[in-house]
TrEMBL record:
InterPro entries: AMOP_dom, Epithelial_Barrier/Signaling, Ig-like_fold, Ig_E-set, IPT_dom, NIDO_dom, VWF_type-D
Coiled coil: none
Lineage: Eukaryota, Metazoa, Ecdysozoa, Arthropoda, Crustacea
Organism, scientific name: Armadillidium nasatum
Annotated AMOP domain residues: 575-726
GO CC terms: membrane
Name this protein carries in UniProt: Protein mesh
Domain NIDO: 179-339
Composition-biased stretches (Polar residues): 1115-1126
Length: 1126
């Protein structure tokens, strides 16, 4: 009967709804057409950048320079509240106070904070989200990432104005032809392949706004764009009796990507309120309290970027008049694909150190790289000083956001500080700049063939990339020759001669310039005749006027022999065989220097050993089986390796292997590897002779190869001395392969002594630890659960991160990126708070991260992760601890506990290994104060939410009401029939007194241990043997059971006073301490043996009861044995 009545009501309301829907639709269509006519008449000539109506034309379109200049004057990008059919265009009608966000699916990859995303949420609350919105707004001010994650939600979002908002209204009397207040969403895909007018204008406008608005985007080409606009949104909680609904903000978020780089643009049109009422804002104007959050959050407890000083401060009022990206107040641009880099100047007044954004972030040690910097807000009258490491140079202001610095020559490699000073002030703004060696940096000038390396070439063809010098067409360049020498403790880079001047700088990457050596036949450079190596430098003839610098940008070649320039002058002095004289001079000089060959590591015997010994040897970039296979200096070799690090004097080792994998020796041929007096990477301090990166190596070890062997015969006296005496290959006698410890799988452990065991740990553990007088080293690993795969969830764990620190280095951490974040990079390598991405074998040097010198009883280990990054460590013999064991060549003593005592010996017992060894090496925050949190956590998958059409919402609501009403009636009838079995009876409503229990005095020194499965099984068996004491309600006394005493016999330090027994029953013989158990009592026989109440009794004990605090806690939380007994 109930269902029939509900169905009749539902059909009646459905009939009324559909009978009026057609008339409403016809009226709506007429009004939309009328509205379109009014808009067109008001706007006049159609302009897609300013119109309210979305363009419909798909005709091919070509933009002119004047039109591009015109549309770039606008602050806001286009958004439409109507289309040509009269519908609401980009306006999101489903977003309102009750439904605050809608899901949007993307058909392209959007990189954000390292993740590749293809979904998003657009919210009324001023953000574009990439995860579910938080369930509740936290206390103010907001802090991201949320420290309590995962217990509290941590949303991922881009927030130009992250605050609680409502849709506002236009003030009476305002222009009625304004766009409708609300939230607008527009998505433009595949811009490069489209030629319609809207796509072309958005593409060109975005391209130049990004290129000129942020450093490092000079060649950016937008592929996709998202335009989200919040038009006239007001603050939540505004008073209805005031004009709060007219107090509104209008701002816009533009996100553009080429699926590799992503940029976000914040455009603030006008801003009149700062805070909603829950954050302390006033209810009439939205002022005061804690203003909105402005910035970015990666979500899931990982990373965040708060845009200071505007976010959650009074400076938020300046958003609409600050920024000055593209010289427009109210525009702020960021790069957000891997990290957030701000492209707009900021005023900072509270700190002493601010991040400097610059591009490029690396340069050749020889100098000449133009660096664009963004940090403080500049004025054209400001005097800018740039400091690279300890060398200062003058910079120039380009606009309010950007200044330029020209990198000077530096005798250093690796990361250095780059800072700027304004008007002679402190260097508050700074960042980390990578100085590359002349051999490891990309070639700025390269050679078409190998003629530059021959003794007497007639011509040399050179190429360079014109855009590296200037983008100005018709510019000319100068080509000069420079040399390097070490005549004292101070190295010298000297200018030799101007080769050519006024050379056209156009298309030189395809059309080489030819240097004729005959042009230098009559040159005289008597002061430079001792120079044998140098470089070719190309710079602008006149410095770029736009940069206002006194010097020009420059590009350099790699180090080269310069005999082609000096050959005519050397012939006049030494004769036609001048190379013999040059070789003899080098041999005499090298004999007078310190012998170094006995101090460097021995070469591995076989190629397979050299490849495996990655802690001590790295591939030689001049002869690499996975890279440069030309092997110009080692003909016939398949692969060469160099010692990874120099020794204390800066020397290194080189080992080459033939196609059969055997070590090549200079005693057999001149192409073998040889010891090197100067390591290619240099040695700190780098500004001393024999320690300059790349240049000292070329001067002492490479140039002589040309004059002694390459330009003479292999059996000549000079080459014989070079091969057998000065640079003789070292054999593998005395080479000891390294001991390696590894973990793989889920995970399987192999110690240094090759002991094998399995340990499924979760958390962070000590892999290797040594703490002696000479060595201090910690290597720690993070183990996480194996991700879910096609077989479902796995209970195994895997190594996902490794961190290490020795007694002289900073912390180095290597993290495997999660699956959703390896679309571009596979690893994060973090050194002293600087993060690199690693996709293949690389080496980044840092002066703050130096390895320990090898000792008499030391050995290196290396840690290799998925993408192949390697970091070596030195380990002392018989002084290692951790999961990788004690290295003594004896596997029986590998498992040592942290206190130094031996661990379990049976590695086949997984439970014993886990509990009695592996878990003993787990880390906590107190033991490991520099433990880093996980940088990345798998971001939850996007939820595909269907958009419900507005015309069927009333129908769905009626159906839901119908179903809910009927279910409630049926449920109520069933509950009335089973009240006794559903609700807990009250002891006060019966004629039987409530049950009481006596509690023995208890002293707790630490928490009670949880019952083990064995304990539970014993208690269950005990229950089966016990008598049902409460079933007959005969008020007889129950036997005594001291369950608390049984618990105290475990490993816990809980103590119990056994002088007073604990009794259970309806009436206690010794009612000294009583409490209500909440057990149901009724006047009918009830069997309670298998009943366990899940509802906690909240009734207040009787006044006669007296408990100590420990007893109350104990009573409210009974032990597992007491619950089982009941």
């Amino acid at each position: 009967m109930i269902y029939e009545k509900c169905f009749v009501k539902f059909c009646f309301f459905a009939f009324l709804f559909f009978s009026g829907s057609r008339a409403v639709y016809e009226d709506s269509l007429t009004s939309r057409q009328k509205k379109l006519e009014e808009i067109r008449a008001y706007e006049g000539t159609y302009d897609p950048m300013t119109s309210r109506i979305e363009p419909s034309s798909k005709e091919s379109y070509t933009i002119t320079a004047d039109r591009l200049r015109e549309i770039r004057q606008y602050l806001m990008y286009p958004y439409y509240d109507y289309d040509n059919d009269g519908h609401r265009g980009d306006l999101e009608m489903n977003i309102n106070t009750q439904n605050t966000q809608v899901n949007k699916q993307l058909t392209f990859l959007l990189p954000f904070f390292g993740f590749g995303l293809n979904y998003t949420w657009v919210s009324i609350n001023g953000y574009l989200g990439f995860s579910d919105a938080p369930f509740n707004w936290r206390t103010y001010p907001l802090f991201f990432p949320v420290a309590e994650w995962p217990d509290s939600p941590d949303p991922s979002f881009i927030g130009p104005f992250y605050s609680k908002c409502n849709i506002g209204q236009l003030r009476p009397g305002e222009d009625e032809n304004q766009k409708t207040p609300g939230v607008y969403w527009r998505l433009e895909r595949d811009l490069p392949s489209r030629d319609d007018r809207l796509a072309v204008e958005i593409r060109e406008r975005l391209k130049w706004d990004i290129r000129e608005g942020i450093v490092g985007a000079a060649i950016y080409q937008p592929k996709h764009a998202i335009i989200v606009t919040w038009k006239n949104v007001t603050f939540a909680g505004g008073s209805v009796n005031t004009d709060a609904k007219y107090v509104t903000n209008t701002f816009q978020l533009v996100v553009t990507t080429d699926e590799i780089r992503t940029f976000a643009m914040f455009n603030y049109d006008y801003m009149t309120w700062t805070s909603h009422t829950e954050a302390g804002g006033s209810s009439d104007e939205g002022q005061g309290g804690v203003p909105a959050f402005v910035g970015f959050n990666a979500g899931n407890g990982t990373r965040a970027y708060e845009y200071t000083p505007y976010s959650q401060s009074l400076y938020i009022r300046d958003l609409a008049v600050a920024g000055y990206a593209d010289d427009k107040p109210g525009r702020h641009i960021f790069r957000i694909d891997e990290y957030v880099l701000a492209g707009s100047c900021r005023r900072e007044e509270t700190l002493k150190q601010y991040p400097l954004v610059f591009s490029p972030d690396h340069g050749n040690m020889l100098g000449g790289t133009l660096v664009n910097v963004t940090g403080p807000c500049f004025e054209t009258s400001y005097r800018i000083t740039c400091q690279f490491d300890t060398v200062t140079t003058e910079g120039e202001v380009l606009d309010k956001n950007t200044a330029v610095c020209l990198m000077p020559q530096l005798f250093v490699s690796g990361y250095v500080d780059l800072g700027i000073s304004v008007n002679g002030g402190p260097f508050y703004w700074s960042g980390r700049f990578l100085v590359e060696t002349p051999l490891t940096t990309a070639e700025g000038v390269w050679f078409t063939d190998d003629s530059v390396y021959t003794k007497s070439p007639e011509s040399i063809d050179i190429n360079w990339l014109a855009g590296n010098l200037t983008q100005t067409h018709g510019a000319t360049v100068s080509i000069s020759l420079w040399g390097y020498r070490e005549r004292s403790i101070l190295p010298e880079i000297v200018y030799i001669d101007m080769l050519y001047d006024g050379v056209e700088n156009w298309n030189r990457e395809k059309e080489p310039f030819t240097i004729s050596t005959a042009d230098f036949e009559n040159r005289e450079n008597t002061q430079f005749l001792d120079l044998e190596m140098g470089f070719i430098m190309i710079n602008l003839t006149e410095p770029e006027p736009a940069f206002k610098l006194k010097k020009s940008t420059a590009v350099w070649s790699h180090p080269i022999p310069i005999a082609w320039y000096f050959q005519y002058q050397w012939t006049e002095i030494y004769g036609d065989n001048w190379e013999i004289n040059m070789c003899d001079k080098w041999i005499e000089s090298d004999r007078n220097q310190r012998n170094f060959a006995y101090e460097i590591p021995r070469c591995p015997c076989l190629l397979v050993q050299a490849i495996s010994d990655r802690g001590r040897f790295l591939p030689d970039f001049s002869c690499d089986k996975d890279g440069n296979t030309k092997c110009y200096y080692h003909y016939g070799a398949s692969h060469c390796v160099r010692s990874a690090l120099p020794n204390k004097d800066g020397a290194g080792q080189q080992c080459c292997y033939d196609r059969n994998g055997y070590l090549m020796m200079t005693s057999d041929q001149m192409w073998g590897g040889h010891p090197q007096r100067a390591h290619n990477l240099g040695k700190s301090p780098y500004d001393e002779a024999n320690k300059v990166p790349s240049l000292s190596h070329w001067l002492h070890d490479t140039v002589a190869f040309y004059s002694c062997c390459k330009w003479q015969s292999e059996q000549s006296p000079g080459c014989t001395v070079y091969r057998f005496e000065r640079r003789a290959s070292q054999d593998c006698v005395g080479y000891q392969p390294p001991s390696a410890a590894t973990t793989f799988g889920d995970p399987h452990m192999y110690t240094f002594d090759d002991l094998q065991y399995t340990f499924n740990g979760l958390g962070e553990f000590v892999l290797v630890r040594t703490d002696s007088i000479r060595h201090v080293l910690d290597v720690q690993g993070r183990f996480e659960r194996i991700p879910e795969n096609y077989m479902g969830n796995s209970k195994g764990s895997m190594l996902t991160a490794v961190a290490a620190r020795d007694n002289v280095s900073s912390i180095v951490e290597i993290r495997k990126r999660p699956h959703d974040a390896i679309w571009r990079y596979h690893l994060d390598v973090i050194n002293a708070s600087s993060t690199l991405q690693a996709t293949f074998l690389t080496k980044a040097k840092s002066s703050s991260c130096s390895p320990l010198e090898p000792g008499l009883k030391s050995k290196k280990i290396w840690v290799t992760l998925e993408s192949g990054f390697i970091y070596p460590f030195h380990l002392p013999y018989n002084d290692t601890r951790g999961l990788f064991g004690n290295w003594t060549f004896d596997p029986t003593d590998d498992l040592v506990l942290p206190d130094g005592t031996p661990g379990p010996s049976d590695v086949t017992n997984l439970e014993v290994i886990h509990n009695e060894f592996g878990m003993k090496w787990v880390l906590d925050d107190k033991e490991d104060p520099y433990k880093a949190e996980a940088e990345y956590v798998n971001m939850q998958n996007g939820i595909v939410a269907g958009i419900v059409l507005a015309v069927i919402i009333p129908l769905l609501l009626a159906l839901l009401c119908f179903v809910a009403y009927c279910r409630e009636r049926v449920k109520k009838q069933r509950q009335e029939e089973s009240d006794f079995s559903t609700y807990k009876p009250s002891a006060y409503s019966t004629g039987v007194a409530p049950t009481v229990k006596k509690v023995a005095p208890v002293t707790v020194s630490q928490p009670m241990p949880m019952s083990t499965p064995v304990d539970i099984e014993e208690e269950n068996n005990q229950m089966k043997d016990e008598t049902d004491y409460t079933s007959n309600h005969n008020h007889q006394e129950m036997p005594n059971h001291n369950h608390i005493s049984r618990s105290s016999s475990s490993a816990s330090s809980t103590t119990v006073d056994n002088s007073s027994e604990t009794t259970f029953g309806v009436h206690s013989n010794e009612p000294e301490v009583t409490y209500y158990t909440g057990e149901p009592v009724n006047d009918k026989p009830v069997h309670f043996q298998n009943i366990h109440w899940g509802v906690e009794d909240t009734r207040t004990p009787s006044p006669s009861s007296s408990m100590s605090p420990h007893e109350v806690k104990r009573s409210q939380t009974p032990s597992s044995s007491q619950e089982s007994a009941v």
